[in-house]
Design brief:
Blueprint (H helix, E strand, L loop, with lengths): L1 E5 L4 H12 L3 E8 L17 H14 L3 E5 L1 H17 L6 H20 L4 E3 L4 E5 L5 E5 L16 H4 L2 E2 L8 H10 L21 H8 L5 E4 L5 E5 L26 E6 L4 E5 L5 E12 L5 H7 L12 E6 L7 E11 L9 E14 L6 E6 L2 E13 L2 E7 L2
Parallel strand pairs: 1-2, 1-4, 2-3, 4-7, 8-11
Antiparallel strand pairs: 5-6, 6-17, 8-9, 10-11, 12-15, 12-17, 13-14, 13-16, 14-15, 16-17, 17-18
Helix pairs in contact: 1-2, 1-6, 3-4
Length: 399
């Protein structure tokens, strides 16, 4: 096969590309330039997509004896990831830019270009498995090494994209083994630290970065009864579940710490309360995509004409709302509801509703909810609202 290896400049993508070469495929390495002004060097293990990363990727390809190219996706990255990140925070939501990058850049723009150039598949260094089931359909599953499993951030992949995705590290028992293999191959990236934090905020200070890109307006911090507790410099700088940085001056009457429960962008208010009020038992997601063929209950429902109030049959799931969070058991169903967004008010929208069997706290609108059955990824949706059925007045919503 003709394989495009997406080379981040890290150890995982280096070993993934090497394994594709070992398998006898025609491999071409490509590094994505996602910034027009990449830093020349990393700051420790922060960030990614720097000039240093590009040079590391080039060296690995030279050692493997495969062609290497840099593709400039910086404009699309700015529009689809950075601008989206800013817009979501302005709307009071907490986005996941890595999910958006996988959805819009690495497995949309990159794959689209690769297929148009005649490549059969794109190889990356992600830890996840793609399995062909008995019906011949491709399914996305968790990696063998659950500690490094990255199936959550790949939950945005569609059935068509899975046909062209290959993850050679899928069954590798541990990251340590990948580093050992890289060292045996003589790759200089064998001991290179993993990147973390948001790549376009390499210093890791999201609040300061947002302050440079969003016009912050001072507003009020209130409790759930409406009592004013203090002021904030800008509601967009906060997220549900946050404790630090509230600067309320005096403790709550019970002496317990307060947490952000809700962001209200229309009134520019931040609502705070006790940790207990962060607990939710129902999450509703929008803009769902399916990683492979949808489950039977969803397939049957989506064949029907949209109708307000119509719901699918329920199906068992585990839900995960953060990349490294524990999955939580629940039941899910789809339903048609009336859209309340200003631009589409009165129209119907499809929601994914998950009733949780186990407790979950600190769920923020804008986060991504990925659904599983066992190790299989069913799909994902963007969280529109989350609330406690026992306390419907305490809602966390930016829908």
């Amino acid at each position: 096969m003709k394989i495009l290896a997406a080379m981040s400049g890290g150890v995982d993508s280096a070993v993934a590309a090497a394994r594709a070469v070992d398998a006898g495929h025609e491999v071409v390495g490509v590094h994505l330039a996602l910034s027009r002004m990449p830093g020349t060097l990393r700051t420790g293990s922060r960030g990614c997509c720097t000039l240093e990363d590009s040079m590391d990727a080039r060296r690995v390809c030279a050692q493997l004896g495969i062609p290497f190219f840099v593709w400039d996706f910086s404009e699309r990255f700015k529009e689809d990831v950075v601008d989206d990140f800013i817009a979501e925070y302005e709307a009071g939501r907490t986005p996941n830019p890595c999910m958006r990058c996988n959805e819009k850049i690495k497995f949309a723009a990159l794959l689209e270009k690769a297929v148009s150039l005649g490549f059969d598949a794109v190889v990356t260094g992600h830890y996840a498995r793609v399995i062909t089931n008995d019906d011949g359909n491709r399914e996305l599953h968790r990696a063998a090494d659950w500690a490094k499993d990255q199936s959550y951030v790949l939950g945005v992949l569609t059935h068509e994209q899975l046909k062209h995705a290959w993850f050679p590290l899928a069954t590798t028992p541990s990251k340590a083994e990948v580093r050992e293999e890289a060292a045996r191959r003589g790759f200089s990236v064998a001991k290179k630290p993993d990147s973390y934090d948001i790549c376009f905020i390499p210093e890791g200070d999201t609040r300061a970065w947002l302050g440079e890109h969003i016009q912050m307006r001072p507003g009020l911090i209130k409790d759930t009864s409406g009592t004013v507790l203090g002021e904030h410099p800008g509601a967009q700088a906060y997220t549900v579940g946050q404790r630090k940085g509230l600067a309320l001056g005096k403790p709550a009457p019970d002496g317990k710490p307060r947490f952000v429960l809700e962001i209200r962008p229309k009134t520019n208010e931040v609502i705070v309360g006790s940790r207990e009020l962060l607990a939710v038992d129902e999450i509703r997601g929008i803009r769902a995509t399916w990683a492979g063929v949808p489950v039977a209950e969803a397939t049957e429902f989506m064949r029907q004409d949209p109708k307000l109030g119509a719901s699918s049959a329920t199906f068992e799931v585990t839900a995960q709302v953060r990349a490294h969070a524990d999955p939580v058991r629940g039941t899910a169903h789809l339903q048609w509801v009336e859209n309340t967004d200003e631009d589409t008010e009165g129209q119907l929208r499809l929601e994914t509703v998950v009733r949780l069997k186990d407790g979950l706290s600190g769920v923020a609108p804008g986060q991504t909810m990925v659904l599983y059955q066992g190790t299989r990824v069913l799909g994902q949706s963007t969280i529109a609202r989350a609330y406690s059925l026992a306390r419907e007045d305490i809602r966390q919503t930016a829908a």
